Amino acid sequence: MSERITRRRTLAALGATGIAGLAGCSGGNGDGTETDGDTMETDTEASEDMDGTTTDGSSGASGTVKIGVLQPISGDLQYYGQQALWGFSSGMAYKAGGEPQVSAETGTQTVTVGDVDYELLIRDTQFSADTAQSLATNLVTDEDVDMLFGLTSSGAATRVSQTVAKQAGVPLMIGPAASASVTSESEACGEQVFRASENTAMDARSGGRYVARESDVSRVYLFGADYSFGRAVVNNYEEVLTAEGVEIVGKRFVPQGYSEWEGLLDNAAEAGAEGIVGGFTVATLPALFTSYLNGDYDYTVFGGFATEITNNVVGGLLQNQLGEPLTQEKLDGAGIGPFTTRYHWNQYDNEINSAFVEGYVNAYGKVPDLFTSGTFTAASAIVQAVEESGSTEGADIASALRGMTVADTPKGADAYTFQEYNNQARSEMTVANVAPTADEWSDSWGAPIQPSDPVARISADETTIPADSDSMNCSL
Predict the structure, then answer these.
(1) Where is the composition biased (Acidic residues) (predicted)?
(2) Residue 159 lies in a domain
(3) Do residues 236 and 265 make contact, with C-beta atoms less than 8 angstroms apart?
(4) Considering the domain boundaries, does residue 475 fall inside one?
């Protein structure tokens, strides 16, 4: 215990220097304003409501685990933080055998699993790296948390990893921040830094393999946002497509919010592209799709399925261009997709996912969205680590997490495994077509389009950056 206190005191002494010295310095996106996840590219007796796995304390663990939770739960992008928290809450509830109870509100909320109380100290990052760093420092030095969980912005995740978790030796479970660099670059990754949530490399490597192996596309033009998220999408698509024999006929990075798409789309056509990839967020995608749908292009648009926010915007564009009601026939002729998805509620058919979807809808009025499987799994993994180690100490939890295969996940039993070389969990990804939103989901999915049933699955062994890749600069 004295070692842990010493680390906290050391961070307290260094904290002010760290905040001043690193403000704004996190790979060009240090202000945390990027929305890097949203691309077309959240008692001990078992309850039958969630069919959860319970513990009766036989693991030997008892006491309290204090978890500092950092998510944006106010402002324009509060839905990102909400779904991340709701997924985490659902993972805890599943392990407890109950219903999700945690709300997306600041303060302290407690979930009990077996003989262990998980005390969640929830803080609002407001999607700012500076705010996230300050809050994380306070949680470690003043609240003496055992570990940290959260962060939606990759800039904030990198900052907190560098200046708080790694300095203090406090475990950090990142999620849903999605830039590949968080677990592939030495500056951000570390022995104490974990991520169950899927990332941009997984989007791209899955999508690239599908394009190369399952489509007739042999020439691709790559577009991406000019910051860590977009560059990770483009670089990983380029690596996989090239290895699979697909020719890259051009690539271009543009600022977030870029709107002059007609000329760039014409350039792709002139280069002979049969498909284009867009590594963008909701800030840029609507303008791209508007120009594409208004033009006369023979190539197909690929990428990743987004959250409800982007699906609502893009679905509205499709309704305007194709007419209402949207039908599968209209969508099939639009030249859009299929897209990869990290997770959506209808992509996995197993008992855990069925319980997850039912409990999540009942508790929050929404179906589980893009970020939620990763944060459900983060919570499930933390509980499993406590049970397996028999300890509530952060260092023991981290030790149990390394190399862990997580038993209970929405993608099925044992579907996520933390890689020992970078503490990133690998998991299966799916590919789906764009489909009109089914009547049964219209009340809990506020967008005109949704993913279809999966048309392909990409094995977990093929989704993440390999240890020997030139793109993997983390070796733990």
Answers:
(1) 33-51
(2) yes
(3) no
(4) no
